[in-house]
Amino acid sequence: MAQNPPNLRPDLAPKATRPADNRPGQPTIGMVSLGCPKALVDSERILTRLRAEGYGISPDYAGAEAVIVNTCGFLDSAKAESLEAIGEALSENGKVIVTGCLGAEPEYITGAHPKVMAVTGPHQYEEVLDAVHAAVPPAPDPFIDLMPASGVTLTPRHFSYLKISEGCNHKCKFCIIPDMRGRLASRPAHAVLREAEKLVDAGVKELLVISQDTSAYGTDIKFAEERGHRAHITDLARDLGALGAWVRLHYIYPYPHVRELIPLMADGLVLPYLDVPFQHAHPDTLKRMARPAHAERTLDRISEWRDICPEITLRSTFIVGYPGETEAEFQTLLDWMDEAQLDRVGCFQYENVEGARANDLPNHVAPEVKQERWDRFMEKAQSISEAKLAAKVGQRLEVIVDENDGEVATCRTKADAPEIDGNLFIDEGSQGLKPGDILTVEVDEATEYDLWGTPV
């Protein structure tokens, strides 16, 4: 079966930037971080703990005394990539500790790579540290090994992922994430706020709120209030918005209470951006998926959100070729796209995942049909994106700079999340712009996914 395009795969992490200012004689650890941003946060927490214990972080295999591979197990293709990464680390370094989602299946890993030193599951930080201690004993120097208040980050300094909960209570038939990461476990709101404050104090300009189900934040702890902060997504978004950074919300299921977030966007407290995993539009397909949302209501909710905040950007992902998907069901999805007019869209061809209930469904779709439907879907999504971006020509937009090579500054508008959405490029007037700068530009040109502009 053809793999999903790399830029639409959930198992490819952003390129990591790792500190390399290690002292002589300092024990060093390397990190290979695969997976979604939630896994990237786990990698950051592990490295922060290691730095606090006196370990240095190596940006390459040669400089590391052991390597941690944080794996992804979301799709079979992701599992294959994780095994490949483990094999490469073993070949290049020899001392390898495996963690992450695929670590929930230790026999699967050791069957392919029996020489790994240890295997731990997702967010098992203490077990990872124990394995590192066994492989490379710590040798801290409290007079030299200083930790920044914000900890170690694997993203550029001007934006950071903020994980507010772990796990998921849904039982979608195509997904095994709840089996690997457990049921929903929300962090106390005051702890999230404290982390966010440290990040902003350290210079972070954009907070990307992530979890498996951001809309459900706090439901497991009955929206507990502690130290003046309530564990409810609306309250949390309002509190985060008061910190002065851009706040971007990911993985929002379209529950009715999401409406309460939209006025915060209209008021400028939170970026007018919602990442909503609709996955499909036909009610029978959604029923076979065991999805928690109802397609017949989503168009009404989208309309209501746009009435409250006309500038809102909606991003989503979809699955084509799900078992039992008929041509009529797929056409319903295309028609729904015409009505919904989503701004940013990703699409996956359905893959079997070992342990997922969808594997046992009847009437699996042939690979060539999945590819053909994916092509048609992406053609539709591209035409919508092209028209929406063309309408921005002549507008003035606020952007954040991600990088500047001296000739072209690569930026993002409020409608663009890092790595997964488009960019705005400045090729005239980019001199002196630095990552994290926020400025206003006038849009001069648009393509299917990207914009060009000039500072004003």
Automatic annotation (TrEMBL):
CDD domains from the UniProt entry: Radical_SAM
Record Gene3D superfamilies: Methylthiotransferase, N-terminal domain, Nucleic acid-binding proteins, tm_1862 like domain
Domain TRAM: 390-456
Keyword set, alphabetical order: 4Fe-4S, Cytoplasm, Iron, Iron-sulfur, Metal-binding, Ribonucleoprotein, Ribosomal protein, S-adenosyl-L-methionine, Transferase
Cofactor(s) for this UniProt protein: [4Fe-4S] cluster
Binding site for [4Fe-4S] cluster 1: C36, C72, C101
GO molecular function, one term: metal ion binding
Keyword Cytoplasm (UniProt): yes
Residues that, per the record, bind [4Fe-4S] cluster 2: C168, C172, C175
Compartments, record wording: Cytoplasm
InterPro entries: Elp3/MiaA/NifB-like_rSAM, Methylthiotransferase, Methylthiotransferase_N, Methylthiotransferase_N_sf, NA-bd_OB-fold, Ribosomal_uS12_MeSTrfase_RimO, rSAM, rSAM_horseshoe
The MTTase N-terminal domain, residue ranges: 27-137
Region entry Disordered, spans: 1-29
Cofactor, free-text remark: Binds 2 [4Fe-4S] clusters. One cluster is coordinated with 3 cysteines and an exchangeable S-adenosyl-L-methionine.
Swiss-Prot/TrEMBL GO biological process terms: tRNA modification
Main function: Catalyzes the methylthiolation of an aspartic acid residue of ribosomal protein uS12.
Family: Belongs to the methylthiotransferase family. RimO subfamily.
Protein name, UniProt field: Ribosomal protein uS12 methylthiotransferase RimO
Organism: Harenicola maris
Native organism taxonomy: Bacteria, Pseudomonadati, Pseudomonadota, Alphaproteobacteria, Rhodobacterales
